[in-house]
Design brief:
Strand order of the largest sheet: 1-2-3-12-13-14-15-16
Helix content: 25-40%
Shape: elongated
Number of strands: 21
CATH architecture of the largest domain: Alpha-Beta Barrel
Largest sheet: 8 strands, parallel, barrel
Number of domains: 3
Distance between the termini: 23 Å
Number of helices: 17
Structural class: alpha/beta
Radius of gyration: 24 Å
Strand content: 15-25%
Length: about 475
């Protein structure tokens, strides 16, 4: 079974989709990686979905990726006297450190980190940015702010602080427990929320120790400010447009999406575009034209994957949403403009042998119109380097490592095949042609381009390129 598109699809599991029957239908509709959101999932639920997905992979005979998304810290208001309050523009309000207050004029916030880090003129956003305050002055246990955008606030509404670097880890004790549970099960990707600085990613990488890929969610201005350093440490990025659109001006988000997508491609690491991609399909069997254009734009930009959240987790039309996303991606990838747009974004290869080889693979593949690129890989690095070039031909990634095969489900254009390790050069060429034919990518007489590292099995040492013909099986 093969996909006829290169852009991958992530779908979030939830009440609308966490049964084996719906998971199978979602996979058949086009899902490559399933996301489990730990904000709404117990360890028992995580284990059950993991078990069902691994059984599904065995049933369909294809690797299926599983991404565990850690919740991250949640900064919220305390309990307001009376449960709610209206803040008027120009009004001065007193922010009080604590869970609640007896004074009707106070706005309690039970997070000492805020009072430690916030500075004069910093913004404080409440309820997804609907209410905006600006700090005037502060002390250790209280602060005074002026209301710039007013409205009603209620108990436990979320708080965002786009100007402030908060002195707190991206992982809470709950996240550590969730992480331990996910790693014990053997999930393929861990998504890290609340990334502010490279050290947040380094902390998670140290704990994971190579047992899963680490995906950093870019959702805060501080992460954007250190994007290059975050990207160097992370294995993948997510454009988390929900929180990014709260903490940054909405009109800036499309440009930030392009910056993140292009930076990830340049680094040869997968990037996911997420949040509200087909939002109206939570309640409607058809998306809006604007949503279709939004998904298409991410595909035109060369994102490795596009993601569904509530559309597949709790919506009324999870399967239809995946089918729609699949149709959009297939349509874009066959558009006459698609290849020229993708090609125009190719960067100059770095001065390394693997990068030079992959640039040559791309040129040769395009020139001879090869039907497939075969990248023998153990770690997945060779396949990801090939994906960075965004060639017309699909990338087949034979690997003896099941974990690598699952992880590559997130990577643009890749089709993982679990196989025995290659014995020698002749075995590599023969089996590459055999796999391309058996997987439905090439027919006898077609040409394929093969790349690997010599000595065979050396991680990351891509230094060999071979063009071969696919022959009839004898």
């Amino acid at each position: 079974m093969r996909r006829h598109r290169k852009t991958k699809i992530l779908a979030t599991l939830g009440p609308a989709s966490n049964t084996p029957e719906v998971m199978r239908a979602l996979f058949d509709a086009g899902v490559d990686v399933f996301r489990i959101n730990m904000s709404h999932t117990s360890h028992e639920g995580l284990a059950a979905m993991h078990r069902q997905l691994r059984a599904l992979a065995g049933e369909v005979g294809r690797p299926i990726g599983i991404l565990c998304d850690l919740q991250g810290p949640k900064i919220r208001l305390g309990r307001l006297p009376g449960g709610k309050r209206v803040l008027n523009e120009g009004e001065r309000v007193r922010l009080l450190l604590g869970e609640t207050s007896e004074d009707l004029m106070d706005v309690p916030i039970p997070h000492p980190e805020i009072f430690q880090a916030i500075k004069q003129k910093h913004a404080l956003l409440i309820d997804d940015g609907k209410i905006r305050l600006r700090l005037l002055r502060k002390a250790d246990t209280f602060a005074e702010a002026i209301v710039e955008v007013g409205g009603e606030i209620r108990d436990r509404k979320g708080v965002n602080m786009p100007d402030t670097l908060l002195p707190m880890s991206a992982m809470t004790p709950k996240d550590r427990a969730d992480l331990d549970a996910a790693l014990a099960l053997g999930v393929d990707w861990i998504a890290l929320s609340f990334v502010q600085r490279p050290e947040d990613v380094a902390e998670l990488k140290k704990i994971v120790a190579g047992r899963a890929g680490v995906l950093a969610k870019i959702e805060k201005p501080k992460a954007m400010a250190s994007l290059e350093a975050v990207l160097e440490l992370a294995d993948a990025l997510m454009v988390a447009r929900g929180d990014l659109g709260v903490e940054m001006p909405l009109e800036a988000v499309p440009g930030l999406q392009k910056r993140i997508t292009r930076a990830a491609r340049k680094a040869g690491k997968p990037v996911v575009v997420a949040t509200q991609m087909l939002e109206s399909m939570i309640n409607s069997p058809m998306p809006t034209r604007a949503e279709v254009s939004d998904v298409a734009q991410a595909v035109f930009e060369g994102a490795d994957a596009v993601m569904l959240s509530a559309e597949s987790a709790s919506g009324a039309y999870p399967i239809e949403a995946v089918q729609m996303m699949d149709r959009i991606a297939c349509s874009v990838e066959t558009d006459p403009l698609y290849h020229s747009i993708i090609e125009s974004q190719r960067g100059v290869p770095e001065r390394t042998t693997p990068d030079a080889i992959m640039a040559a693979v791309h040129e040769i593949t395009e020139t001879i119109e090869a039907k497939a690129i075969i990248t023998w890989t153990k770690s997945g690095i060779t396949a990801m380097r090939a994906a960075r070039e965004r060639s017309l031909a699909p990338i087949i990634a034979p690997t003896p490592d099941i974990a690598t095969a699952r992880r590559l489900c997130l990577v643009w254009g890749t089709h993982s095949v679990i196989t025995e390790d290659i014995r020698d050069f002749d075995d590599m060429v023969r089996r590459a042609a055999q796999i391309a034919r058996q997987e439905g990518f090439a027919e006898p007489g077609d040409r394929i381009v093969i790349t690997a590292g010599v000595p065979l099995g050396t991680t990351g040492a891509t230094n060999m390129l071979r063009v071969a013909f696919v022959e009839d099986e004898r």
